[in-house]
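anyone seen this seq b4? input:
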Amino acid sequence: MEHDVCQFAELADGAVLRAQVAGVVLAVVRLGEDVFAVADTCSHANYSLSDGEVLADTCELECPKHGSAFSLVTGEPASLPATDPVAVYPARVDDGMVKVEVGS
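predicted toks r here
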């Protein structure tokens, strides 16, 4: 099911927003005209990814605790110490609203 998260214009380019949608805590990232949504919890250290740095050049979100970077497209970690991916959720912009699909 698709859920409204925020107005696209309210999310700055390169910014990350922590949002709870249908009981799932997400890190929602804007890169240019694209939006991405991943599970907000690092798979390595149970730390909030929304507090991390967006790596625009590689389309990744870096965990602030130990520096593992996760692909915003696949959820796969690009660097240690994390070895497990984080969940990725379909995200899009529709009529100025960021929408994320969570659940079925």
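The longest strand covers residues 24-31. The mean pLDDT is 95. kinda curious what u guys think
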